[in-house]
Amino acid sequence: MRFMSIVTSSQPPAQPTPALMEAMGKLADREIKAGRMVDSGGLLPVATGAQVRIVGDKLSVVDGPFVEAKEMIGGYAIFELRSKEEAVALAVEFMQLHKDHMPGWEGTCEVRAFAGPDGQCGG
Questions:
Q1: What angle (nearest 5°) sits at the alpha carbon of residue 74, between those of residues 72 and 78?
Q2: How many CB atoms lie within 10 A of CB 31?
Q3: Which among 5, 86, 90, 105 is placed 20 to 30 Å from 30, CA to CA?
């Protein structure tokens, strides 16, 4: 089963500490070597992005930053795992790294399964 972990925070963007970068790198290396991490990445600030919106019957493009956004996606990881429980355990481990290496940072790691061709959980 394929899962995506999405990290969000309502705090102003902060550069990860060198210790956090090193710890995340070790975790990523371990998961890549185990064949479980398919892809991952951090995202550039929202000021560099754009949103394509439909409101009513009008389609528009809005360049960042997005003033109305309450939380920003900072990064993601895609894993090939056996279960949701395994995906949640990895998310807990990842967020613990933030707790240990960036005191005061607050955020969320959302874990979502990819839908298969039939709309069910799969990958």
A1: 125
A2: 20
A3: 105
Show the domains of the chain with their CATH numbers. Answer: 2-113 (3.30.70.1060)
Q: pLDDT at position 29, please? A: 97
SS3 for 26-80 is HHHHHHHHCCCEEEEEECCCHHHCEEEEEECCEEEEEECCCCCCCCEEEEEEEEE
From CA 109, how far away is CA 8, in angstroms rounded? 6
Phi, psi for residue 66 in degrees, rounded to 5: -105, 100
| pTM, two decimal places | 0.84
Report d(CA 94, CA 92) in Å as an integer: 5
Helix (H) or strand (E) holding 109: strand 108-113
CA distance 80 to 123: 8
Amino acid at position 79, single letter: F
ω into residue 65 within 30 of 0, thus cis?
A: yes
